[in-house]
Amino acid sequence: MKPSVEMTTILRKIRSDADVAMLVAYTFALAKQCGFSPVAVTEITTGASELATNIVKYAGEGVMSFSWVVVKNREGLEVMAEDRGPGIKNLELAMSEHYSTKGTLGLGLPGTRRLADEFDISSEPEIGTRVLFRKWKN
């Protein structure tokens, strides 16, 4: 079942807190239009918000994309966050609970991973970071 919206890959530039706020509203509306449950809409929106916030906080700017994906009879929404920032020096440490380089609670990336059905992150110092967040429709 395709989403009720016509969708190819949609790109959003992220450079400021205002962009993050607009992305949150956009993600919420998109996930609802795609027919996700209220819980899944919240999970997708929260995950996208965290990724966008990290782009602004750590890289300064980046891009997020949204795509409808079909893999082996499963359909879902894929959110990709990419930046060309300083990268994450120790990815294993960054993915651990309560680790933060900015004095926050350190729950963002590990929490985002828990919200996703599929999650992948790659990062190289001085090259940037790429995070895939995928949620399947039930």
Specify the CATH class: Alpha Beta
| String of helices and strands | EHHEEHHEE
Can you tell me the residue ranges where pLDDT is under 50 for at least 5 consecutive residues?
Answer: none
Rg from Cα: 14 Å
Q: Give the mean pLDDT.
A: 88
The major sheet is characterized as:
5 strands, antiparallel
Beta-strand residue fraction: 25-35%
Number of DSSP strands? 5
Count of all domains: 1
Shape category: globular
Number of helices: 4
State the helical fraction.
25-40%
CATH-level-2 architecture: 2-Layer Sandwich
CATH topology: Heat Shock Protein 90
Core attributes:
single chain; 138 residues; alpha+beta; Heat Shock Protein 90; 4 helices; 37% helix; 30% strand; globular
What does the model show?
The structure is a single chain. The protein has a single domain, classed as Heat Shock Protein 90 (2-Layer Sandwich), CATH 3.30.565. The chain is built from four helices and five strands. Strands 1-2-3-5-4 form a five-stranded antiparallel beta sheet, with helices on one face. Helix 1 packs antiparallel against helix 2 and helix 2 runs antiparallel to helix 4. The mean pLDDT is 88.
Would you summarize the structure shown here?
It is built from 4 helices and 5 strands.
Topology, please?
Elements lengths: L9 E5 L2 H17 L4 H22 L2 E10 L2 E10 L7 H4 L13 H8 L2 E7 L3 E9 L2
Antiparallel strand pairs: 1-2, 2-3, 3-5, 4-5
Helix pairs in contact: 1-2, 2-4
